[in-house]
Amino acid sequence: MSDKRHDVHQLAITALAPLHIGTGQDLEPTSYVIDGEDLYLFSPEAALRALSERAREELIAILGAAPTVQLIKQVQAFFHRNSEALIAESEHAMPVLPSIAAEYSQRVGKTAQREESGREIINQLTIARTYGDAASGRPILPGSSLKGAIRTALLDLVNDGEAPQRGERNRDLQRRLFRYRQFDLDPMRLVQIGDARDLSPDETYATEVRYAVNRKRQQVIGKDGHEIESQAEKQNLRQVLECVPPLRPQAFMGQLGIQDVAGVSSQKLPDPSLRWSFADIATACNQFYQPILQREVLEL
User: Fold this and answer.
1) Whole-model pTM?
2) DSSP state letter for 164
3) What phi and psi, each to the nearest 5 degrees, are found at residue 171?
4) Nearest alpha carbon to residue 150 among 281, 44, 244
5) What phi, psi does 98 have (nearest 5°)?
6) Residue 236 contacts by C-beta under 8 Å, 6 or more apart in sequence?
7) Cβ atoms within 10 Å of 291's Cβ, excluding its own
8) Phi, psi (5° rounding) for residue 124?
């Protein structure tokens, strides 16, 4: 649909791979329990409803001690012991990989390692949250993230394979390619994208928990003929992330609007050659992201 000043398009978005948009917030093992291959999330209020009077007294006694590693271990173990009651009051659930469930069972309430000084390192068991609606528990694709992805594709289109100038910073590169020094002249000012919300049926899982691992794209062989592993591979380093499930057809709905400034005379408008139509944007995104998708499918 369109009006005199905006060309507005409905977006129906399908995630082609597990998708995580970081928020800086983590799930702690004092706000969730894992049973089988499902994680159950509960609020402090739900926990108080779920726990018996005796269990609440036990928790208060634990929390009354000095804040030490031992206290954290006791709190983790307490919630794990009372998982059956907490699951009954859980507000959201999400599937986890069998290996993540096994790791939780083995580590919750226990010491991860002990340093030479004798200081204990606690198992964190934190899970990085993805962006979402706190009330419904459904994920959201922020308009700012979508716009950033489109911006990258359009910058690549304008750049046309040229190498950055020597010592050029990212911000300066963008200003050169998009021909602006101030916000009014940034061509992306004419493109507005709202948050895309998950409209999947309520009975489907909103999110799921997966590992993010660091792996070399290509095998590297050392002088001795053996493969060289990265430090991340040697130490089996990985993150545990809450993700949007892949391949749910058109699960997210949003809007993209393009401001029409044709016929408007002003020195505070982007360069006329950098005013893209919806078709231009779609073409640029396909041209930039489709080869990346094809390469990653082959690598996996």
Assistant:
1) 0.84
2) P
3) -60, -40
4) 281
5) -55, -35
6) none
7) 10
8) -75, -45
